[in-house]
Amino acid sequence: MIVIVTLGLMVIITVALRYGSRRWESATKEMHTELEAARLPIGTMTYSTDELIGLPAPVQKYFRAVLEDGQRIVPTVYVEISGTFNMSGTGEKWKRFTSTQRVIAQRPGFDWEARIEMMPGLTARVHDAYIAGEGILHATLFGLVSLAYLRGTPEIAQGELMRFFAEAAWYPTALLPSQGVQWKAIDGFSANARLKDGETAVTLLFRFDENGLIESVRAEARGRAVAGTVIPTPWEVRWSNYELRNGMCIPTEGEVAWLLPEGPQPYFRGRITSLRYEFAQ
What we know:
Elements: H1 2-37, H2 57-66, E1 76-86, E2 94-104, E3 109-119, E4 122-131, E5 134-141, E6 145-151, H3 154-166, E7 182-187, E8 190-197, E9 200-208, E10 214-226, E11 229-245, E12 248-260, E13 263-278
Antiparallel strand pairs: 1-2, 1-13, 2-3, 3-4, 4-5, 5-6, 7-8, 8-9, 9-10, 10-11, 11-12, 12-13
């Protein structure tokens, strides 16, 4: 009888896990369909150094460092990332993750689909996305049990557009003025950049190193989820380990942190394991 009950439980668990996986994959396909449906035509096919006229000096230096004249514009990116994610809001509770991400440059959008190893045999699946002007954060266990779900508010939309904007260091043609970005000088090593999508507009502070590469990207107030409440909090992405990929110089490692009064609280450390671009034709 014990054996029969045990086998029965194993069958039920197996069926439930397969159901959760299929439901999650179905939701992922639906999100990718929505992402593609929101795509807009790329007006400019190639980058020209003529675009640099009038830009702040550190921004001009950046584009000269990462792009060659005639570089084709990137409308689509597929990237795989692995690393660790801090599950604690106040301490250190790092868990390994693997992820895939699809990015559309126009209209700005992305879907980050991740698996986080909470403990042996226990995996959280996460969608973090910005699609057609809407921010989405959905975390589950095995694709079955919902752990967090945020969607449709102005705060989450703004936060996800900030992520898209900061991660444009991976697809630097999206930072060009021809792609809707407005730059404003701060000093010799930094500049503010503004991006507007529909009703959502964001401004980020880009800091550049001595070689002209993006060292960090900062928002003075990005929504941080705390006990079901979204609290505006300073936020920063730090980029490192630049490499040449398809003619563009991009960072392959990054760390993301909340800048709390008691000090930075990192929650994401990742590196690119695979990267594929589609170029404007």
